[in-house]
Every structure is written in C-alpha cells, then in structure tokens.
Predict the 3D structure of the following.
Amino acid sequence: MVTERVNTETGEIVLAKPEALNIFGASEPVKVIERAAAIATALSTVLRQQRLTSNIQGKEYVRVEGWTLLGSMLGVFPIIVWTRRTEDGWEARVEARTLSGAMVGAAEASCDRTEDSWVDRDDYALRSMAQTRATSKALRLPLGFVVTMAGFEATPAEEVPRDGFPSGPRGAAYGTCAEHGVVYFKRGQMKTPAHKTADGGWCNKPAEARQAKPSLRDQAITALRKRFDLPADQSAWVEARFPDMKGRPSASYTDADWQDILEALRQAEGPAKGQPRGKEPDVAEVDWDTAAAVPEKAKV
C-alpha cells in the first residue's frame, strides 16, 4: 500500500516508502508466502531433530517449545497476562506480542481435575499446564499456518487428548445409548461420553460399556516393571538410552517419549540380569520423581 507524507523541508507531498504490515517484514503477499515457506522449512528440520513434537494417533503435533521457537524466529513472544483458580483447576490468559508491544494474538486456556490425566495432580502443575496451553494457543493464532506449511498439525500438542480426537461423525466413536437411542459424544472437559436428555439432564455412558484402552504411559511402565523391580532402576534405564530425558520429571514425558521407550524395550531381549523380583507396585503407584512406590491418591 502506497501512502503519502509531507516533506518537512520543502512542504511538498511525496510518496512514502511502504512499510511492512505484518510480522514477516514484507508488504507484498508473494513475499509473505515466500518468507513463510522458508521459515517453515527451517522449522521442520529443527522440530524433528530436537523432538519437539508429539505423535498422537499417527499425527504430529507441535509442543509449546516448538511454538515459542517459531515465535522467536519472527519476533513474537508470549506474555502471561494472568492466571486464576477455577472450581476444578486453573485458567490463564496469554498474549502474543512483538518487541514493539503490538499484540498479534491472545488466548485463554484451562487445566482441570475433570481431565483424566490431571485428577491427582498438584495445583502448581495444573497452573503451569494452563499457562502452557494458553501460550501455544496464543502463538497458534498468528503462526498456525506456518506450522501447517512445515507439515505438522496446527493444533498445539498440549490441547490434544491423550488418545487423540475421535474420528468420524460426532458420536461415532462412542456408540449409541441403548436406553434413549441417542449417540454419545465427548468434547471439551467431559470426563466420559454422554448425551443430553429430553428433560435437559445428562445420560452418561455406563462404565461397563466403555472400552478401557491402556495409555502409552501405562504400557511403557508395565513393560518397565517386567524388566526392572525398582522405579529408580527403571528411570536410570530410560535416561541412559534417552539423554534428553535426563533430569526431566516423568510427568513431563509426552506420548512420543513413552512410544520411544516402548520401542526400545521391545528391541531389548530377555529380562534384565541380576534383578531380584519382589512385589510389584501398581502402574498408578509408580512415582519416578521420588524413586519409590507411593500410595495412589483418592480420586474425586
């Protein structure tokens, strides 16, 4: 877009040099696309080399570290505006701003104990995840198309359910209620599939009708228990084979991490030698961060 300005020395009206209208430093659409494509190519290489994505049901989703990397490449940074407690957890607001202070994106997100993976987690963990989700979401608004150009899903990894999104028509993945003849659905923070009833209430899918599918985490921990007796030995084995996981709490492991652990275990033949066998704790009781078996907290 060409604009005009007044020359303060001569008083004449002259054409002003076009200024960049976006974070890509270009005013022409073709130039914007060219720069976005170049950034997408560089981003794709780094995300895969540094394992900054999570593979969920065959699709690759970028984790928050990847989103902040992309933001830094374009001079866009997440600013946490507020975090506050909710009835079941925490919510946060993050704004995406340039160095000049211009806001180019904003989002709010929450993390609640109504989610299966967060029922027993401490407040600080829920608060941190609410900030993480809001950060990725705020950066997705102005930068999501670059991530798509790089070959990844535009949805941030932290927003994707542990077992991925249901496929097919709404309710197809959860079946039909035998009593009411209505399809079940599950979205947002719903803990179980359900449907609305004629009187405005809810009908939850019976527990016995739901197929329990072990998560990658549970599968990996079960396999590790078969090979090592102590949680400390399990953790040491994982960190020895995956140096980038060293020092990280197991709660931060992604589905991609658990999948890598499972694959490594499958390649290892036979049980570990010299490992005495004793009473094995339940999967839910394993707490690598304290290297001990701890009682499972009561779920609410």
Residues 123-149 form the longest helix (27 residues). The radius of gyration is 24 Å.
